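Task 17 of the worksheet. Students: predict the tertiary structure of the chain below and write it out as structure tokens. Keep your answer in the requested format; marks are given for formatting as well as content.
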Amino acid sequence: MFDSLSDKLQSIISKTRDKELTQENMHEALREIRRALLEADVNLRVVKAFISKIKDKAEGENITEGVDASQQLVKIVHDELIELLGKEQKPLELKNSPSLIMMLGLQGSGKTTSSAKLAVKLKKEGKNPLLVACDVYRPAAITQLQTLGKEIETEVFTIPDSKDVQDIVSKAIEHAKSNGFNVLILDTAGRLQIDTDMMAELLLIDRIFHPDEKLLVIDAMTGQEAVNVAENFDAQLGLSGLVLTKLDGDSRGGSALSVSYCTGKPIKLTGTGEKLHALEDFYPERMATRILGMGDIVSLVERAQEVFDEKQAQELEAKMAKSEFSYNDFLNLQKQMKMFGSMGNLLGMIPGLNIGKDDRDKISHEGEKQFKRMEVFIQSMTPAERNKPDLIDTSRKKRIAKGAGMDLAEVNTYIKQFEQMRMMMKGMYDLKSMFGKMGSGMPNPSGMPNMPGLNPKMGKHAVNKALKMMRRFK
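Model answer:
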């Protein structure tokens, strides 16, 4: 989402590396930052306020001999990005039982899908949500919500052929109380643009039922118009928070940096993919860190905890210790890795790589293409071969090659790469065991330094190495 802006900010900061902080180089950097923000479609008043605060902070700093300007600039820009994005994470406030969440937004903003994603998220957190179909105007809106509800195994409350939204919400609350639902997610109607009838209906629901949360769903790819929509809804309804969808999209990202500042309302949730689990809490500090190319190791670890089953991880570790990692294990691991999202997004979370969007796209495209080829190769095996790789002899290789539509040399390459991976996993397990035996006083082998202190050539080296490894599969 912020790839273009991120690349430009990192480039601006890198130009000041190994220089002392002066009025001249800071003025030049601020001018380029202003240009980068405007090109990213950030609202003009937001840009002016942002640059003004950075300038004030920069001029207020004690400029001492030997200060690295890039370090100083990273800190100032990082701090102001956090302020711009809302300072701190704001969780949903669901105090009542049942709690009501109004999902608001224009038609096409992703309200219905976001409602289903929110239900998935709440279920993970131990809630029992009920989806309520309040969009009685858009053709097939109720059917869409019911289809999503069936997919995520969540009940959808609707009254067939009813156009009385007030009655639907009232009876949904009674149904929730009688059946143990503690959160109602109201998928309200949207329009192609804000109109009086739509707002009157929403105001009626708000004043009668007093929802705990009024969340405006905004398509992050709509640019400057997102600010106007957010301000209009907030003026009429008094929003409690924002939901930004399509944050994984290929756009300039200006709306995400503008809506929270312009409305004074926090971004509470973000949609980061098409999958129904792809709705996350929004953390301003983590997003600021990612924009500046410093990774997001906390989100990476949290995603790993969600994706990987602890029991399966322990079983996999036991197999690694005995070099018993099989092709079936590889397929299961690959399936779990897909839950992370694209390889490009995953690389963006790793601190210290400093990889631009084009390079991440190359690695992501090459890697995902080869993973698919590897999957075809494995699916051409018998169940016994997948479970015991040592069974595969020359005659079996020929049969597998024919079934996968590959030549024998390519099959041999895949088998060799797989064996190397097994050896690497065994080595990682042995290293972990060694550090465990040597005691807690030893340094953490997985510890990573902060981004500003890393060698700027590291990212390019990592890209070239990764691409070289991917091409070895060809």
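Marker's comment: Residues 10 and 468 are 25 Å apart (CA to CA). Confidence is low (pLDDT under 50) at residues 438-463, 469-474.
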